[in-house]
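Ticket reopened. Same input as before:
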Amino acid sequence: MGSYGAPAAEGGGRGRGGARYYPPLSALVVSAIAAFSAVIVLAVLHSVYDGAVSRTRTLLGHNLEPTPWHLFPHAKGRPPPRAALRCAPSFACLPPLSQPRPQPPPAAAAPPAGRKRRQCPAYFAAIRRDLAPWRQRDAGGGGGGVTRALLEAARRRASMRVTITGGGRRLHVDLYYACVQSRALFTGWSLLQLMRRYPGRVPDVDLMFDCMDRPAINRTEHAGGDPPPPLFRYCTTRDHFDIPFPDWSFWGWPETNIEPWNVEFKSIKVGAKATRWVDRVPTAYWKGNPDVASPLRVALLGCNDTNLWHAEIMRQNWTDEAKAGYQHSKLSTQCTHRYKIYAEGFAWSVSLKYILSCGSTALLIEPEYEDFFSRGLEPRVNHLPVSRQGMCESIRDAVEWGNGNPAEAERVGRRGQRLMQDLRMSAVYDYMLHLLTEYAALMDFRPAPPPEAQEACEGSVLCIADDKQRRFLEASRAEPAVDEPCVMPPE
Ligand SMILES: *[C@@H]1O[C@H](CO)[C@@H](O)[C@H](O)[C@H]1NC(C)=O
Ligand SMILES: *[C@@H]1O[C@H](CO)[C@@H](O)[C@H](O)[C@H]1NC(C)=O
Ligand SMILES: *[C@@H]1O[C@H](CO)[C@@H](O)[C@H](O)[C@H]1NC(C)=O
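Engineering reply: fixed in the latest deploy. New output:
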């Protein structure tokens, strides 16, 4: 019974006199060596494991650098290390774990009889303008489609490459950089939901996507000669060739507690019903974060005077808001003023749709950036324009005009709300479908995921998400469409 554990086991008898015995020195040495080796083995295992975790890429980008062209430091979503491995697509997308692959619709399913196919909103026409640089033109023109070389050129400013293959059934993402917050996760999810909504209808594509804010493909620098590199992102400007694509917030923005668009629109509309336009405060209101390197928003702080400029400008501190459980940032309780100001941030702002939803008259400070639906904005029809020069005076003039012409101002507000009502999720998915379909038609090569790309499926996205993200993702799940997609406006 040489076990040196024994004395301890008998340790209850500590007071039983001096007969304690000690293990021989050799046993101590042996056990020290054993313990030491165990530590080494554990350390090796741990580092192999760490290595595997650090090589396992996820849509959170936890092991990638942020894009070099981003100004702000940002926290990357960091999954618990075990989740990174457990959620690796190679496990999470195995058939039993991933969602069942949607079945193709019955061949040539005719649209329900007597049901006229919906026309797409007029701003869908912008899809053709956005893709015009890659269209085949007649001999002598540029055009010539999306080539591998152009795609490779777009890579320089992309944060990820996205491929859809297998008849619109498989999504692969090759992430080059970490995206801010959970943008990549939600954008991957948005594509998966498009594939779920239109099983077998999403074309095979190979595209470069940048998840950061500002457009990168300068029109002047790519004038004449070869077509520009095709790069998808959330916005563009009239001076850029970047191709706008619906941003993540339509599927929810957990970091600011903004619900998926269909949920958020409904609750804002209910909030808007609480107070009729005429009974709202007859001034202009803005609430947001001015600290986003936006000279415009900083200048807007200077218009904070209800007497002089009829404007109330409030600061949103998201850190404080998060601590207070987002009680004061609820968008549905912000339809209290007749006029709501929209001011761009570092680039386009996702707030536009929430502002327009109130039915208040939207005052848009000369936007520089466009997102996919903001091409549906018409001055004096669904919003009032405010100029950047003499901004406070311009706000004051708009408010005075509206209070002098309340019926007309209210109609402008109602048309803005209508534009948002028509921007239901089915329209968002239809925009994505038409955009990808037209883009796919321009590709002059067959899409195939690069070897480094990882498959993304609902299982892998839900697995890597934290609890809050998962709640938003599940709430924004699409159902297979019962209607045909809307019909593009005529050329
Ligand atoms: C595009 O490039 C030109 C020439 O380099 C420059 O003058 C212009 O400011 C750039 N435009 C934008 C929107 O960055
Ligand atoms: C704007 O003015 C109001 C009322 O004076 C004040 O409560 C608010 O804090 C001001 N906003 C900012 C951003 O300073
Ligand atoms: C927001 O609030 C946090 C915590 O209360 C504070 O540290 C930070 O300075 C505030 N930011 C701004 C821009 O006021």
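Confidence is low (pLDDT under 50) at residues 1-18. The pocket of 2-acetamido-2-deoxy-beta-D-glucopyranose (ligand 3) is lined by residues 291, 317, 319-320 (CB under 6 Å). Please confirm and we'll close it.
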